[in-house]
Amino acid sequence: MSKTRVLMLCALALSCALGFSGCSGSSTIAITLSPTTAPTLNPGQTQAITATVTNDKNKQGVTWSLSGVGTLTSQTTTSVTYVAPSSIPAATSVTITATSVANTSITATLTISLNAVFAFSTTSLPAGTVNVPYSGVISVTGSTGPFTWAITTGTLPPGLTLSSSTAASISVTGTPSIVGTSNFTIQCTDSAGNAITESLSITIEVPPPLSVGTKSLPNGTVGIAYFPTKGFQLLASSGTPPYTWALASGSGPLPPGLSLTSDGFIQGTPTTAGIYSFTVQVTDSTTPNPQVATGNLSLTVVASTVDSVLQGTYAFQLSGFGPDGHFVAAGSFVSDGQGNITSGTMDSNTPNGQSLGNAFTGTYSIFADDLGSITLGGNESGRIFYIAMQADGTAGKIIETDATGTHASGVLLLQNTADFSASSITGTYSFGFLGTDPSAARYAFGGEVAASNGALNGVADSDDAGTILSNTACTGSYSVATPSTTGRGTGTLTIGGVTTNYAFYIVSSSQLLFMQTDAVPSASLVSGSMLKQGSVALNGTSVFQTTALQTSGGNQTAIGQVGLLGTSSGGALTTNFDQNSGGTMAGPLSNSGTFVVAGSGRATLSGSGLAASDPVLYVVNSNEAFIIGTDANITFGFMENQEVSSTNFSAASLSGVYAGGSVGPSVSAGNNQVDTATADGVQNFNPINTDSSNNGLNQTSSATYSVDTTGRGVLKNGSSAEVGIIYIVSPVGASAPSEYYELYTDLFATVEIFQQ
What we know:
Elements: H1 3-17, E1 30-34, E2 40-41, E3 46-54, E4 62-67, E5 71-73, E6 79-83, E7 92-100, E8 107-114, E9 119-120, E10 128-129, E11 134-141, E12 148-154, E13 160-162, E14 169-174, E15 180-189, E16 195-205, E17 211-212, E18 220-221, E19 232-233, E20 236-237, E21 244-247, E22 258-260, E23 265-268, E24 274-283, E25 292-302, E26 311-322, E27 325-336, E28 340-350, E29 353-366, E30 371-376, E31 384-389, E32 395-401, E33 407-414, E34 427-436, E35 442-452, E36 455-464, E37 467-480, E38 488-495, E39 498-508, E40 511-516, E41 525-532, E42 540-552, E43 555-567, E44 572-581, E45 584-597, E46 602-606, E47 616-621, E48 624-628, E49 636-642, E50 655-662, E51 673-680, E52 684-691, E53 697-700, E54 703-707, E55 712-716, E56 722-729, E57 739-744, E58 751-755
Parallel strand pairs: 2-8, 10-16, 18-25, 19-53
Antiparallel strand pairs: 1-3, 3-6, 4-7, 5-6, 7-8, 9-11, 11-14, 12-15, 13-14, 15-16, 17-20, 19-23, 21-24, 22-23, 24-25, 26-27, 26-33, 27-28, 28-29, 29-30, 30-31, 31-32, 32-33, 34-35, 34-41, 35-36, 36-37, 37-38, 38-39, 39-40, 40-41, 42-43, 42-49, 43-44, 44-45, 45-46, 46-47, 47-48, 48-49, 50-51, ...
């Protein structure tokens, strides 16, 4: 036998040993799942699944992943249990995939069909208080409308009524007038004539006695108005409004220069430093005998000091609504640390026209609680910004609310003036922009671009009222005047053949704030930011926030979400989050699915449950990304890396003073606010806020909170009603939690971000 033939036979034997096809006794791995046929489940049911892996020499088994709703539990290398959601709005299916550990190209799938069972998702209603407005929501799931609602037996408490609704939810509202428990049965009939009933009850309780709700007062400063505009408002707890306020008989005086109005505002400009103790009295409107309560308060007035917490060159960005519709603005100013804005430049744009490169000056005050106000002069005279500053003065939240009719929210960031040149903008950036299209419909887009020598090149995704551009080429340009004292630059972006123009402000070489400068309605009107990319890995836990807007029959419903997105190196993801849809809360909601990250940092999701169709992520750094919707409600948001282990949180994780503010509102009636909030690390929570609904009024309140091991917390007011859901963040490099996202329970689904 020749040497050549011997070598060929050896090669053939080696090929068979390695399991190449065509050889007898192939050792190719194969996976068989049991059950072998597609099962069908009802809401809440479970299905055990086993995997038999042949030719798996080291018995490494499989990993499991899910595409669709529900969760996977009890995972091992050979088995898993699928748990269907407790409610399923419409019939659907999910796919469970088993992937060989030894050879990840080998997979097997099982499809499970899910029935939608017509049922009530509401099984109880909250208690109410006599003479206090009440609101409760009753919902069904698993069928299609229009729905017909009726109370078939029993009655609602006197003073409460059932709203008119053909949707899957109906409200019970009104002001209850009698103490007691009312039992009733409600019936819901779907479009096919199927009727279901649920027995419910509402208990109306005796209100607690009237009391002074304000327990402490922020410090004042000599020579500075005590909360400009209207003053600081005292709050009453319980009782029947309206309330009448006065100093109690025998009370000590208010600080010189301050007075108390009959509707409860402490206002004026203090003239003398010191600590002043006094007693306030509140009288309510209960008939026939009004209630009276008193409260002891103390107000400290400190000597006039410079406002050094706001000192340097700052960039700002705002988005919201004005009298003409959507409003965006960006700019830069210099503050001297003594209450003066010595110079500034501002760009703004509305459907009524642009105002670009406007110079301004102004004054500002920072109060002892780190809230403050900025009054602009010069070409922007009449604008008033309210701010909440972090203690180190490097960042803050900002809103505009003033006589111009503009109500907007945004950020205020200390700039690195050394980066004020086009040459500092180099490398790869991820970005996310939100606003309106030329028809004033909600519009969002995001992407990643490589920046070099004034040119931008990359890809982008956009969602224009549900019209999607996916993974589309994105090009552009940028320039910065030299020398620059503001960091202002101009640029363009071309996506899908449409070119748009922008002004931007450099915060640093890693962060740019953008706003569109094109004339409306011939173009869209958006704003956003670009952040320099680092690692594009997704492998850990992120805290996210999103907003969206549902438009139906001319009605708009604001939607907000906050929660956790977990990712693994194997491509599996989980979501656990809370959602507010026009004041209707749901959560915590859970889903599991899969994701894929491209080298550019563009990530596609499957089964996240974050919207009717999964959003796209553009990763900035590890577990940090812009969230760009692909749904008709135009979901948009951001997520941050959660460095602290997701099992290490407790009430002690929320401790100290935080400065916060709202993200841009989804609807023109939405609230814009800045806050400082103090948590004691145990259960007590005291926020002070300035908001657009009160035209710059500062209000203080008190609440309690609880935090579970994942960092999810619940805020409750004095009557134990939920007022907000929070998720605690520990940013990259932090040694302890120092941030949280909050989702309010209000009609406008307000989302706020708080930082220390």
